[in-house]
Amino acid sequence: MSSHAMAGGKLLEVRGLHAQYGATRVLHGLDFEVASGGITTILGANGAGKTTTLRAVCGMVKTQGEVLLAGTRIDGMATENIVRLGLAHVPDGRGTFLNLSVEENLKLGAYTRHDHADIQVDYDRMYGYFPRLRERRRQQAGTLSGGEQQMLAIARALMLRPRLLVLDEPSFGLAPLLVQSLFEHLRVINQRDHIGMLVVEQNAALALKLADHAYLLETGHVVMSGPSDTIRNNESVRRSYLGY
Questions:
Q1: Residue 21: C-alpha distances to residues 46, 63, 124, 191 (Å)
Q2: 96 pLDDT exceeds 70?
Q3: Dist. CA 206–CA 242, nearest whole Å
């Protein structure tokens, strides 16, 4: 089967992924995927290896195994080359340039692109998704609230026009109402722009509502996977992660 044929229904394919920091193995042979235009979430307790999984996909830690983005092997590639292939990573802790304005942050997000007219269109698109950012577009990012900084981090990543958006704990440190609205934004962006998403999220209930597919990680192993509804209705998941 050609890599092109495989890429048809699968945006991201991960097979036998191992990752380590120095001599410490953190991931032990993970298999997971993100469907084309789909949303996959990775659930698990603190220390299960969720953030490392995202860092491994983005080429930020030492790995073994295969990672394919739209049929192209990206394992072993430099992070910046993975970005150019259409993967945008929104790390835990926002990662915005605090001393630059909102608009300058967005401009930096488009640094790999040369289609200047389309970049202008995308500013408007981002302000359409996140009207708060339009109001604050001349403000320094450091003066924004936590929720606004998270919106900016996501908008900046979207300025790359990625095929896959990788989000690490998007709800972290945000008030519940803001989290609801942020996840609503993500759903709309996924549906309108057909951008695939890989989401690590402490709030399992929200993540399962957003995602179509879920993988449960325990100490660097996938212990359960399936459609979100199946995972949500699993008794032990309910007890351990959903609290009812």
A1: 17, 9, 41, 36
A2: yes
A3: 10
Contact predicate 92/128, CB 8 Å: no
Looking up tokens 């957003």 gives: 210
- Whether residues 11 and 115 fall in one domain: no
Same domain flag for 20 and 112: no
133, 227: one domain = no
pTM, to two decimals: 0.91
Which residues partner with 33 through β-bridges?
13
What does the alpha-carbon distance between residue 161 and residue 139 come to, in Å, rounded to a whole number? 24
Closest to 102 measured CA to CA, from 71, 60, 130? 130
- Tens of pLDDT, residues 117-138: 899 999 999 999 999 999 999 9
Q: What's the chain's Rg over C-alpha atoms?
A: 18
Strands ordered across the beta sheet of 10-21 = 24-35, 10-21, 62-69, 72-73
pLDDT band at 4 (very low <50, low <70, confident <90, very high): very low
* Residue that is written with structure tokens 């908008």 in the block: 155
The pair of three-digit structure tokens given for residue 35, joined into one six-digit string = 């469907």
Mean pLDDT of the chain: 91
Confidence of residue 62 (pLDDT cuts 50, 70, 90): very high
Domain of residue 123: give its range: 95-161
Q: What is d(CA 104, CA 132) in angstroms, rounded to the nearest whole number?
A: 16
Say how far residue 65 (Cα) sits from the centre of its chain: 20
